[in-house]
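As promised in the previous annual report, we have extended the structural survey to additional targets. Below is the entry for Flagellar biosynthesis protein FlhF.
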Amino acid sequence: MSVKTFRAPSIQEALAQVKSELGVNAVILSTRKSPIDPRNPYGSGGFEVTAAAEEQKKPLVRKEAPVRNLRLRTGVSPLKASGKIPERKFSVKGEDAEEDVAAVLDRVPEDFSSGASATGVGWQQVQHELVSIRDMLFLLQQGEHIPDFITRHPESLSLYTRLVRTGLTEKRARQLMETSAQAAGAGKEALSRRVFVEMMALIEGMQPFESLTGQRCVVAFAGPTGVGKTTTIAKLAADLSLKQKKRVGLISVDSYRIGALEQLKTYAGIMGIPCLPAFNREDLQTALRQMQNREVILIDTAGLSHLDHARMEELAGLLGGRQAIATHLVLSAATGRENMREAAENFSQLSPRSYVFTKLDETRKRGGILDQLADYPLPVSYVTDGQRVPEDIHPVTRKGLLQRIFETSGTP
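The corresponding structure token record, generated without further manual editing, is:
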């Protein structure tokens, strides 16, 4: 086996040297930050990668070592020398690189028994190096270079990678890390806490039905087509009427989608609450008068394309100018950042008071919610994460929303 150490100013250049000299099947043994010139420890920083590759001319034969007393705590017996390179390795090519590293990390035991490491390197250090390799490979596969603050604070690599994995934009992740970098000197835990505080500052929870004091609350739910407005209204109506025992009424102003009114009436019939249609301002005023004894009135609107400016103006004319109607903008977390951005811009003429983020169960990239709150700040009233009525709707708190964003990819 040929073992070589490569030094370069960046991890990309070091890995490129590995691939060029040892081939795509090279095994990464270790990676660390170090001076480019080992004779000058005070020189500019770089990365050092140690890699190995099988020599083709003669097979690698390893003499069996007396490892009889070396056993993993998992109870697995020591491997016998076979003269073959183990197949479990880290490839440096494409998407397989990350998958191989992740697979190995999933299979390795938590630690070794005392004296089990033949090289004398502690298992925690080995595990840390493996995780660092995985995180670097992930960033490289995203087409990103290693940010300067990671070079200055290597302990921030795994945290930065987790932010990017959630779907948070690389730009936003960098901003969060740079803002929190002053805490990095205190270690990874202090940095994580600071980043958590910075993200918390982006979130403002809103509970529109928590403190009703005799005055009725009228809320319209608007948003793009297919984000789940009608289902969200059904969940909320069930929670308010069946659990909180409030007097609830439903109004549909959706005259475009076939079956929209019938669907809402079906939900209303099951819950035993009134549901009325309203297709113009006069109808809406009449429906509101008929429901004057209701504590909460929920209004379902037609889903709109961000390109349909005529219908957007029509909806704005129907709901606009009435201070008694609070509009909540419903966005699907599964649609991606660009769609949410366009929706926020186009529905801004309705002057929404808060967001409702739906379909969190349909995506693992929930970090786009934080981008949305940073770029188009509004409070968040509810999130939904399933089809069950009324179980899968949740009021928002700062900590609760962050937990939901990071629960599929690891908390920071």
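Residues 148-201 form one domain. The first strand starts at residue 2 and ends at 8. These points will be discussed at the next consortium meeting with the crystallography subgroup.
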